[in-house]
Amino acid sequence: MSVTATETNKITLLTADEEEFVVDEAIAMELGTVKMYYEDNPDSCDEAIPLPNVTSKYLAKVIEYYKWHVEYRAKKAPKPVKIKFLQYEEEEDEEAKAFDEALLNTLDNEGMKQMIMAANYLDAKDLLEMLTQAVADRIKNKSVEYVRKFFGIENDYTPEEEAELRKQNEWAIEDLDPDDD
Predict the structure, then answer these.
(1) Which residues, at least 6 apart from 161, have a Cβ–Cβ distance to it below 8 Å?
(2) In a 10 Å sphere around its CB, with 0-12 CB exposed, 13-18 middle and 19+ buried, how is residue 172 labelled?
């Protein structure tokens, strides 16, 4: 699927592990960090934009996400008619939702955290919002142990303190979903 038949400007991004990605300007401009660098350094447009906090593995996924969504928006752009706002039909929204879910399904918990850090560093607002909602969904109704493991939080309660807290808040640990790995 291509945005246009004409050639678009390209921007080169350089990851922390020294891999270069050449992407369409429209996709690169979705990333606030890249956009700001590009606007602040107009004379260095031919040089790779360094992204020292993002690895190639996760930049590839960020680019995949924005490439699909930029092309999807272009494909679904309304014809020039007099309407006040754009409303996608239910099936069109389902197509975008299915793509997002497929991307999320490629990420384990560690991958999810790495993607969040990449999206945050890149100021990729739409992606960051989707990822943080996915994390909320993954930890919803899970045990304290699962949430600690997910976020790498050390248990600093003594066994007695933890037992007392569990006793005082029994309602909070009733009917939890099984923990995933």
Answers:
(1) none
(2) exposed
Q: CATH code for 10-140?
A: 3.30.710.10
Which tops the pLDDT comparison, 19 or 9? 19
Sequence-distant (6+) residues with CB within 8 A of 51 are 13, 14, 15, 16, 33, 34, 59, 121, 122
Residue 55: both structure tokens together: 């690895």
Please state whether the predicted TM-score (pTM) of the whole model is above 0.85.
Answer: no
- Sequence letter at residue 65: Y
The residue extents of the domains of the chain are 10-140, 141-181
- Report CA-CA distances (Å) from 154 to 36, 46, 110, 157: 37, 46, 17, 9
The secondary structure element, H or E, covering residue 24 is: strand 20-24
Report pLDDT for 75: 83
| Residue that is written with structure tokens 């007695």 in the block | 160
Local structure of 154: helix, strand or coil: coil
